[in-house]
Here is the input.
Amino acid sequence: MLELPAGPVDFAAGLERRHSDARYSPDAFLSSGDVSGWNAARATAGAQTVKEVFGEVRVPLLSNMPMAKSLNLNGAFRRSDYDVQSVGTVWTSSIGTEWTPVDSLTLRAQRQKSIRAPNVGELFGGQGTNGPTATDPCSSRQPVSQQTAAVRTLCEATGVPARLVFDAAVQPTNFITQIVGGNPDLKAEKSHTITVGAVFAPKAVPGLQLSMDYYRITLDDAISTLGGGGLQSVLNLCYNTIQNASSVYCKAINRDPLTGQIAAPNYVLTTTANIGGIKTSGYDVAGHYGFQTGWGLMGAESRWNIDTNWTYVKELTFTPIQDLPNITNKCVTAFGQTCGQPVPHWKGTARLTWNSDKLMLSARARYIGSVTVDGYVLPSTSGATPPALESLTNPVIKAYTYLDLTAGYDFTKNASVMVGVRNVLDKTPPVLGSSQLPSNNSIPATYDPLGRNLFLSLNFKL
Here is the structure.
């Protein structure tokens, strides 16, 4: 686009149009809930279209000067027009710089503003009912210390007959009915990201490259279920935290006017909503070292590669309700009903790979740091007195290290085979109590649920 003393200016621009459409049509039996083991399902039908214009530029400022082998500035923008009224027109942008003072060192920094528009499922997902376990604060299940006059007044204001407040009849079973599904009034999530890092590749050690980046991310208008934690969170926010019958959380609760129960056809509305924010920061560290040896398969040379990637999460703080910024959940090193998936301080991988002629052998170690149930971590980080750790069910998940082995062979340039063993040491996943997680009795998204398992793949290029 333009020639500067330090080099040419690179520029790109374009237009884009995307259309998303989703439809789900359960049959009459599933729609009515007349299927054993299933809740009633509702049809989903919706679409969204977005039109975008974008541009990006890279400007060289300095080149081949003392303490400035290169200095570049880069920037980008994107304007997106959604046909979903609650999202409308949104802008994203980024600006950053890369500075290479000497050949072996590059410093970089970036600042970004991003959005994530709600998807079709979050907007138009069919609403249906289910009945998870929960505690109704207006029943006798409410801890005696929390059966206050303020809660009593609020229970009456939200539909519990005065004579039944804190009575067992308000919640005769462990289950409470809720309605889940999409919300066509969702706004886009907004995030701001800052990253600062360095890449070091010393000439004295050919093949070695090390990098470290610091990141800080804040996200507002996060999309989740109302209350940020589903049914129990809505009940707690209404009766124990906000204590205002006009709040969106109290208005989401519908009771039987005669019994005060929340059972079908009455419910708690926990559809998707823009509920709060997230703050996280930490460090990403990576290393690579590759070298050749003079020996290998059938007299050929071989190459060794050592790769490692690690993440250290310094902070992960959820603000469940943006209207209550002082209420936060600090979820680093925690897992559970409130924090969800485990978030250890350290998580990483290390891989050793040997390539010789057509053969490849590789060993990989995966590490997941230890975590503690959020029922203990959250009170500890908020200054409250946590319960005794030994009084909790399965309170700690110890650190896990998995070993994976892989072998590959290239028959030709266009045909290859790969075989391997995941979780060679056959480690079993942690088994947890039903009340420790929103679902499942283990955490398959984090821990290998299958034990030792084999895989085989054949690849052909046409």
About this structure: The CA atoms of residues 177 and 265 lie 8 Å apart. The mean pLDDT is 92. The helical segments are 28-32, 120-124, 149-157, 231-242, 248-251, 374-382. The chain has one domain: 2-460.
